[in-house]
Structures are given as structure tokens and as C-alpha cells.
From TrEMBL, chain A:
Binding-site residues, [4Fe-4S] cluster: 347, 407, 410
NCBIfam families assigned: leuC, PRK05478.1, PRK12466.1
Leading EC class: lyase
PANTHER family per the UniProt record, alphabetical: 3-ISOPROPYLMALATE DEHYDRATASE (PTHR43822:SF9), HOMOACONITASE, MITOCHONDRIAL-RELATED (PTHR43822)
The record's free-text note on cofactor binding: Binds 1 [4Fe-4S] cluster per subunit.
Quaternary structure and partners: Heterodimer of LeuC and LeuD.
Catalytic activity: (2R,3S)-3-isopropylmalate = (2S)-2-isopropylmalate
Native species: Belliella alkalica
Domain called Aconitase/3-isopropylmalate dehydratase large subunit alpha/beta/alpha: residue spans: 8-457
The protein's name: 3-isopropylmalate dehydratase large subunit
From TrEMBL, chain B:
Name the record gives this protein: 3-isopropylmalate dehydratase
Signal peptide extent: none
Assembly with partners or alone: Heterodimer of LeuC and LeuD.
One Gene Ontology MF term: 3-isopropylmalate dehydratase activity
Family: Belongs to the LeuD family. LeuD type 1 subfamily.
Keywords in alphabetical order: Amino-acid biosynthesis, Branched-chain amino acid biosynthesis, Leucine biosynthesis, Lyase
Cross-referenced InterPro entries: 3-IsopropMal_deHydase_ssu, Aconitase/3IPM_dehydase_swvl, AconitaseA/IPMdHydase_ssu_swvl, IPMI_Swivel, LeuD
Annotated pathway: Amino-acid biosynthesis; L-leucine biosynthesis; L-leucine from 3-methyl-2-oxobutanoate: step 2/4
A Pfam family reported for this protein in Swiss-Prot or TrEMBL: Aconitase_C
Gene responsible for this protein: leuD
Function: Catalyzes the isomerization between 2-isopropylmalate and 3-isopropylmalate, via the formation of 2-isopropylmaleate.
All copies of domain Aconitase A/isopropylmalate dehydratase small subunit swivel, residue ranges: 6-124
Catalytic activity: (2R,3S)-3-isopropylmalate = (2S)-2-isopropylmalate
Length: 466, 197
């Protein structure tokens, strides 16, 4: 029998038809929508006079541009308000489930999907957002799409996609204390570059990956796109099933047993062939941080910014442009650099485990005076748990400002902007120029490293500050 | 929605050799707040094009009248990051119909093909030739022929062929989009769903 990868198994089961010398007509099980990339899709559907084929397969929530204070009041920014209102209007009109601002399950789309058990192994999941890859942690094929494709899914539950090449990244061994899943993914991206997986769908495997919680696995799959991959996925196992059991939309009773026995078949066959493979040793991974303007520009916190040796032409020009933006010089150490802001949140690291990790670290400590510390839960559910577990109290005593759920300063579409020229160490996913506000200088790190930086007021290794 | 047909495009070129240009640079997130697809070209490369007061930055290529045209010649790994189709809307609205690079990010490339901007992938060597030619003479014209899948530097006749799958090629040539195609497959999609249940 043909040996198949996990990706092959799920992909092949969703191909309606292969267009000769063209893409596949690819069936989508679940579709998430938010306020920013869906309005034009609905508008175009209307222009065509076409309705939504399967409204029950789409779920909406406003997250990208919502304010993170006073969510019970009318949104002040007119354009943001209009987008959120459009989402409400479109969901209502077409009978699409909406987790609106202020409702019990409002939050970042990639946080609430798993939380509600909507995300399940073996599914195909898309959303007009590149971090849809997050859902791959459950052994699903999940990836970001453009607005034209959002329209396609609404109209036909299908998109036209060519099957990606297959890559496996195996991380074996044990992680050292103070090293987290965020460090694993920043390490991988630094190794293979911000474009190293373009054209591929990645399966993460190995004992270090298997040892991770679902939250930690989501952080890894979330950042697959940051090395150019279409998406990333991890074979479902007992950790996955334990997480999903009892969730609102998870199968129940006999259906559950049936589902689990199917989910157990979702793994790469021994001997299946990948187009590319990488192997890393978990023991080599240390706390990581980025120093430049793409997520591939990462080093160990204890490391030095690379020199320009061996670089030439537009490669060197682009590198120096990036460092100039950051206000850093080639060759210098990153430890000890002063920081102005820390941001804990986003679909990468805005889940309860992330907040626990920060709270455990800062308990009984205070943030440094030069730091403004924002903590933005990924969802209402996360916010609620943080209150119930006493984490909010700990964080507030340490000088962190807790805000309401949303994408917030990850992309600064709302008022949560890092001022021009200021340095922010963030748990989010992108350090692009201006990502956290025009002129903002972002460094990406794990929640644990961010906590340590908040206390010390400068870049530091979380393993050294107690 | 349907877009202009793409057959042969002959144009001068706007060079942007910077590598790893992400979609946050092409159109920053704060300009994604529209509910209609209009006016995105004004904010194309906003933060590279204008200072905080909104004055044009002289050293940015879109503010240099020496370089104009419907073809953007871009550096390696163009369009990485966010899946925002708004990035392509902004390029299209500004007047670009073709982006040439030695390497494109995946989702960006798909988005281009979906709205009628042709992404042309060339070798790094040919990219160097084009950048040098345009720098030496900004009036240099490049011809992109979708039918023969050929891109030619007209001043020297140097050319290279590029890939595009047959389905997308037909779409581009006729100005069709995927939804037109998918809506015609309704029956087959229904059959597929029945088969899975």
C-alpha cells in the first residue's frame, strides 16, 4: 500500500476534483471569519447574487481591530466600528454563528476555535488570516487565505489550491529548563530562514514536540507561516484527545469514541516520504529573541547580532536597512539592551498557559520603572480563568496592565500601538517594520523571557534572573 | 470579481530591490479598515512612501518620477507575512499589473493570481540583469507575454520563461476568477459531500 504522510491523508480526503494541469478543488470543513478580511467577500457575493452555501460551517468573531478597553461601549474609531458592525450584519443575515464582543466566548479567532472544540483532528480549516496555521496543532490542515478565497468558501465551501510540498521537522530530546515552545519555533525559523519553508506544508514531529501541551503546540504551528510555510501540523495523540474531551463542540458519547478511533489513524505511515526533512536536537535550543525585522532574524538571548561577513549586494543592503531600523549594529550583544514596552498576548502566546508562565515568574516581583507592560488575554475564557486562578492579581501587583481580549498590539490596528522608536519585547509573531505601530521596534520572545525582561527592564535570559 | 484580461504587457519598470518585503510594508494594518475594495493604492507602501506628517519621502522609488510603469521588479521573498489580499488590491489600484521577483511568498502569489496581478518568478541572475538595466536606463521596457510564458528585456532581447499552471493561465487571459469556475461545479461538490457523509 502507498505510504502516506499525515498531510497526504487529510488532503486527499478533501479533494473534490483535480483540475488537469491546475489546482485541486479543495473542500473546507471549517471556516473562521473576522471583521477585517470578510466584508469585501460578502459584498462581492451580494454583487453576484450568491448566498452562503453552508452557514453552519463558518464561525465569526471580531478580533483584529477591536479596542481592548471599554468593550461594553460603542467603538470610538469610526472605521473599526463599521467593520465590526458589518460582521454582525453579515453573520445575522446569513445565519452564521458569531462570538461577538462581550460574549462569553469572544476572543482571537485562533484562540476560541480550539477552546470551543470547533477545531478537530483531520479537518480542513481556513480563515482570512495567515495564523490559521495555529489549528494544525490538532492534526488538521489549516492555513490562511485571501479575501477572494473567503468568498469562495462562503459560496461553495471549496477553494482552488495546489497541494503543497511536504516537509518534516523533527525535534528530539529534552528541553532545558526555561526553554519553551516559542524558543523552539524561533530557533527553527532562525535556522531555516523566513522563507525556508515557502511552498511546503510542515509536519512537526519528534519526542520534544510530543512532550508539549496543546497550547505549546499551537504556538509552534502558529508561526509556521513565519518561515514561509503554508501551514504546519502535528499528529493528534492522547494530549490532543484529553484537551478536546468535553469541549462544547467536541463529539459526545458514542460519537466521541468513533471520532477518537478515526483520529488515531491520523499519523504519517512509517516509510512515507517527505520532500524535505530537518532534524534538530532540543538540547541545543536556548531562550531566543529576534533582533531584526523578520522572524528569521533570531538569536539566543545570550548571543550576538550576526556580523555582515559573507553578505553582499541586496542581501547586505537589506540586512543593514533592517538593523538600522532597529537601532542595532552588526556584531553587538543583545543582552542588556534597554526596553520600553512588553506585550504578552496574540494568537501565538495569548493562551492561559502563557499567562500562567508570566504570572509565576513575576509573582512577588515588580516590573522595572522604564517598562510599560501590557497583557492581553486571547479570549474571554482565558481572561476568566486568569481571574479565577488569581493570576490577574499577581500581574497587577507586579505592575502589568491587563486589557480585554483581541489581537491588540500584535498588529496595532486599534489604539494599542508602540510609539515610534520605542523597543518592545513581545510574545506575538511578527517583528516587521511598523507592525506594532509606525516606527515601533519589536523583538519577539517567549512569555517567560518577556516576563524576565519586564522585571529587569532590559534584554536578559530568563534563566538568570530570580 | 472579474478583472482585466492579461495577454501581453509591455511597460517600463519600477525597481524595489529590498529583500523580504512583507505585506505589512505593502499595506500597513491600520489601512485595512475599509469595508469596500476602494482606494488602497493611496496607502501602498505607506510608511516607506510618506513620513509621519504625510510628506513624500524623496528616496523611496514610488516618489521618484524617473521610475514609472505597470511592472514592479521586486527583491527576493516578496509578499511574506500576512495573508491580507489588500496588499494586492493596493498594488492593482496603484496601477501595477505584474510583479517580477526571484522568489515570492506563497499566499501572496495566490492572492495575485486571484485578482489579476501576474506574479512572474525569474532566476536570481535574470533579476540582477533586469535591476541593472533599469538602473542604467529607467526608460527600459520589459515585455511579459502570458501566452508564451516569456519575459523579455526589450533593449537586449534577453529573455527567460516563467511558470504558470494552465488553469490559472486561462483565467488570467480571460479575466475569469475561481468563483466563476467553482459555482459551475455545484453538482460535483454536492456529490462529494454526499460521499463523505
Amino acid at each position: 500500500m502507498e505510504k502516506k504522510t499525515l498531510f497526504d491523508k487529510i488532503w486527499d480526503a478533501h479533494v473534490v476534483k483535480s483540475v488537469p494541469s491546475g489546482p485541486d478543488v479543495f473542500f473546507i470543513d471549517k471556516h473562521f471569519i473576522h471583521e477585517v478580511t470578510s466584508p469585501v467577500a460578502f459584498l462581492n457575493l451580494e454583487k453576484r447574487g450568491v448566498g452562503v452555501l453552508h452557514p453552519q460551517r463558518t464561525v465569526g468573531t471580531p478580533d483584529h481591530n477591536v479596542p481592548t478597553v471599554d468593550q461594553d461601549k460603542t467603538i470610538k474609531d469610526k472605521l473599526s466600528r463599521m467593520q465590526v458592525e458589518k460582521l454582525r450584519e453579515n453573520c445575522k443575515k446569513h445565519g452564521i454563528e458569531l462570538h461577538d464582543l462581550g460574549s462569553a466566548h469572544h476572543g482571537i479567532v485562533h484562540v476560541i476555535g480550539p477552546e470551543l472544540g470547533i477545531t478537530q483532528p483531520g479537518m480542513t480549516i481556513v480563515c482570512g488570516d495567515s495564523h490559521t496555521s495555529t489549528h494544525g496543532a490538532f492534526g488538521a490542515i489549516a492555513f490562511g487565505i485571501g479575501t477572494s478565497e473567503v468568498e469562495m468558501v462562503l459560496a461553495t465551501q471549496c477553494i482552488m489550491q495546489s497541494k503543497a510540498k511536504k516537509m518534516r521537522i523533527t525535534v528530539d530530546g529534552e528541553l532545558s529548563a526555561g526553554v519553551t515552545s516559542k524558543d523552539i519555533i524561533l530557533y527553527i525559523i532562525a535556522k531555516i530562514s523566513a522563507a525556508g519553508a515557502t511552498g511546503y506544508f510542515v509536519e512537526y514531529a519528534g519526542s520534544a514536540i510530543e512532550s508539549l501541551s496543546m497550547e505549546a503546540r499551537m504556538t509552534i504551528c502558529n508561526m509556521s507561516i513565519e518561515m514561509g510555510a503554508r501551514g504546519g501540523l502535528i499528529a493528534p495523540d492522547e494530549t490532543t484527545f484529553d484537551y478536546l474531551k468535553g469541549k462544547q463542540y467536541s463529539p459526545k458519547g458514542e460519537e466521541w469514541d468513533k471520532a477518537v478511533s478515526y483520529w488515531k489513524s491520523l499519523k504519517t505511515d512509517d516509510g512515507a516520504v517527505f520532500d524535505k526533512e530537518y532534524h534538530f536536537d532540543a538540547a541545543d535550543i536556548e531562550p531566543m529573541i529576534t533582533y531584526g525585522t523578520n522572524p528569521g532574524m533570531g538569536i539566543k538571548v545570550k548571543g550576538n547580532i550576526p556580523s555582515t561577513e559573507g553578505m553582499e549586494g541586496s542581501n547586505k543592503t537589506s540586512y543593514l536597512k533592517s538593523l538600522d531600523y532597529m537601532g542595532f549594529a552588526p556584531g553587538e550583544a543583545i543582552q542588556g539592551k534597554k526596553v520600553d514596552f512588553v506585550f504578552v498576548g496574540s494568537c501565538t502566546n495569548g493562551r492561559i498557559e502563557d499567562i500562567r508562565s508570566v504570572a509565576n515568574y513575576v509573582k512577588g516581583k515588580k516590573k522595572a520603572d522604564n517598562i510599560t507592560a501590557w497583557i492581553v488575554p486571547g479570549s474571554r475564557e482565558v481572561e476568566k480563568m486568569a481571574h479565577e486562578e488569581g493570576l490577574v492579581k499577581i500581574l497587577e501587583e507586579a505592575g502589568f496592565e491587563l486589557r480585554q481580549p483581541g489581537c491588540s498590539a500584535c498588529l496595532a490596528m486599534n489604539d494599542d500601538k508602540i510609539p515610534s522608536g520605542k523597543y518592545a519585547v513581545s510574545t506575538s509573531n511578527r517583528n516587521f517594520e511598523g507592525r506594532q505601530g509606525p516606527g515601533a521596534r519589536t523583538m519577539l520572545a517567549s512569555p517567560l523571557t518577556v516576563a524576565a525582561v519586564a522585571v529587569k527592564g532590559e534584554i536578559c535570559d530568563p534563566r538568570e534572573i530570580f | 470579481m472579474a478583472y482585466d484580461k492579461f495577454n501581453v504587457l509591455t511597460s517600463t519598470v519600477v525597481p524595489l530591490p529590498t529583500e523580504n518585503v512583507d505585506t505589512d510594508q505593502i499595506i500597513p494594518a491600520r489601512f485595512l479598515k475599509a469595508t469596500e475594495r476602494e482606494g488602497f493604492g493611496d496607502n501602498l507602501f505607506r510608511d516607506w512612501r510618506y513620513d509621519v506628517e504625510g510628506n513624500p519621502k524623496k528616496d523611496f522609488v514610488l516618489n521618484d518620477s524617473t521610475y514609472t510603469g505597470k511592472i514592479l521588479l521586486a527583491g527576493r521573498n516578496f509578499g511574506s507575512g500576512s495573508s491580507r489580499e489588500h496588499a494586492v488590491w493596493a498594488l492593482y489600484d496603484y496601477g501595477f499589473r505584474c510583479v517580477v521577483s526571484s522568489f515570492f511568498a506563497d499566499i501572496f502569489k495566490n492572492n495575485c493570481l486571484n485578482i489579476g496581478v501576474l506574479p512572474v518568478t525569474i532566476s536570481p541572475e535574470f533579476a540582477d540583469v533586469l535591476f541593472a538595466a533599469v538602473e542604467a536606463d529607467p526608460s527600459t521596457e520589459v515585455e511579459v507575454d502570458i501566452d508564451t510564458q516569456k519575459i523579455t528585456l526589450l533593449s537586449t532581447g534577453q529573455s527567460e520563461s516563467f511558470d504558470i499552471n494552465a488553469y490559472k493561465k486561462e483565467n488570467m487571459k480571460n479575466g475569469f476568477d475561481d468563483i466563476d469556475y467553482l459555482l459551475n461545479l455545484k453538482g460535483e461538490i454536492e456529490e462529494f459531500e454526499k460521499g463523505r457523509a
